[in-house]
Amino acid sequence: MSETPILSSVRRTSKRLSMAGATRASLNGPLRSSGLFDSIVNSNNSNGSAKRSILLSTPANGNKRRRSSIYHQQSHPPSLQSSANVQSSVNAPSSQQASSQVQLQQQQQQPLSGYRTDPRPLRDKNYQALIQQEIYDFLSKNRFELEMNHTLTTRTLRQPTQKDFVLIFQFLYGKLDPNYKFTKSIQTEVTNVLKMLNYPYLDGINRSQITAVGGSNWPAILGMLYWLVKVNLSFLNINDDELMLPDDPLDVIYVKNTTKAYQLYINQEDLSNITNQMNDDLKIANEKLIDIINNLNSNNQDLLKEYEELNFKIEELKTSEDKSKALESDLIKFQAYLETMESRKLKWSEILNKIQLEINNCEEDLSKLNEEKKDIESKLINKGFTINDIDNLNNERDKISKLIDNLSNKFEDLKNKLNSKDIELNKNYQSLDNFIKQYNNTIYKIPSINYNFEIQLNEGILSDDNFLTIFFKPNDIINKTLKDEKIELLKFRSQLNNKIHQDQDDVIKLQEQGDLISETILEQRESIENLEAKLNANKITYDEIYETMISDTTAYSLQIEKLDRELRSIKINTNQGIIEIENNLQNLSIEFDELNHEIFKQKSILHDKIQKIIEFIINFKINIQSNLENLDDLITEELKIEQNKKI
């Protein structure tokens, strides 16, 4: 009996990514055989089966490596994760599991946007010597001279030729994507590869530097090669086992009991205890999960308390900061006020001197005016006028002017009232005209009227000069009497009411018909809903079948790739055995013909035997039927005899 495979070890792949892009067929090379790209596989299982992910980054310098957990990749996005086009889907681990996860190097903590200057001291001789030694060590350990058939020395990295740079670049990128082929010019290839890898300092490298790497252009090129070396080291330091998440306990229980049940079924043993055992395992797992949830809830409560305390402290800090800012602003304003007051204090002496001069001038003017007043009074006395007479004349003039002003004000008030009444009457006339027009328009809309309800205004009223002084009756304003018009309107309303009642009866009948139609519509709608429910169920089954078909196609594609590789190896060995296979084919064709002839003979013999058996069965059936009929007749005769005996 063959052993059943452990289901938790089966991984369904949804994507395979190449460093050169999804369109390159570079997954059949050594990277797949070494298991590097298998670590980029994500599981589509919704029950939480194991998933893998890769997080790539670059170091900040040559000797120190900053490490960060792959489960914090959202808060610290590494630059090479996007450059390698690696999509990872990782379930969030618990606090105990997070410390055991893989931690990779990081150099770029900020997203790549716009022009970025290279902060590395690439023109420093000591730094150049350091990174040259690391590049040389990496190339030596990975057998650069054997693979590229080119000599490598430390001087090569100090004074490189164009060929040295091309071979080193091709070798370093070949380690990332072995099946990539350099078909274009070196300027285009380097630019495209660095863009694809999302090299953060690509703006500092132009085509002229790539075509002539020596001299002053070499530091930037050397920094780019060092970056590629660190990318390769990041790939080599990845451990697939550390990137694996533990299996879901429910999956473990399900797989264990399923495999056990399958083994019992193969051995034809009793399966009654499997369900009980699975329930016990699920209860134990459930209790563990409840304990974990309780612990998490208690931790969550503690964290919430700490969070509230910190928020309270933060609010106190904010209030104190606001108060300090307000005090600082008040202090600045007070200092500015003091400065302005000091500046004004220096100007007060000048202002006081000017005021004193103005006072002196005013006193001189006042003395001059008093002298002029005395001269005028003396002249009036000489002419025979006293001051009292002049005051009396002024008072009379003031009274007369006030009386004239009062009369003019009364006249203006009367004029304004007359104008306002005129305006009000015009407005009332216009509103009445508009109302009558609206009334006439509504009358025009009523069909089949035997009586003319139209009303017209007497336009000659406004042309009369005594329009404001004459009192007009309603019959003088319109061309009809309102009482007669009201009687006609009441008659017409009664006719309309009768017609409305008839229409309402018709509407009730139509509503009854509509209710019957709505009932039929509801029945049809219920049938449609039932059909929609069936359609949704069919869609769900279709989606399930489609998902299983996709998973099967992915598995079949993997098998096809494996078979393709086997087919290539088989094709190499087939040329040697073609003659033997042809001979065997001829022999097999002869044997096949003989077997066909023998089968035909056996078939004819079997046909004859079957025909004889069928004839025998038919005869046997006929004999049995005849015997049954005879037995029936005999039984009836015996029954008659017995009945006669009883009688």
Automatic annotation (TrEMBL):
Its main location: nucleus. InterPro entries: Kinetochore_Ndc80, Ndc80_CH, Ndc80_sf. One of its GO terms (cellular component) is Ndc80 complex. Residues 59-122 are annotated as: Disordered. GO terms for biological process: attachment of mitotic spindle microtubules to kinetochore; cell division. Gene3D superfamilies: Ncd80 complex, Ncd80 subunit. Residues 88-232 form the Kinetochore protein Ndc80 CH domain. Keywords: Cell cycle, Cell division, Centromere, Chromosome, Coiled coil, Kinetochore, Mitosis, Nucleus. It comes from the Eukaryota. It is found in: Chromosome, Centromere, Kinetochore; Nucleus. Residues 279-320, 352-424 form a coiled coil. Residues 72-113 have a biased composition (Low complexity). Acts as a component of the essential kinetochore-associated NDC80 complex, which is required for chromosome segregation and spindle checkpoint activity. Belongs to the NDC80/HEC1 family. Component of the NDC80 complex, which consists of NDC80, NUF2, SPC24 and SPC25. This is Kinetochore protein NDC80. It comes from Hyphopichia burtonii NRRL Y-1933.
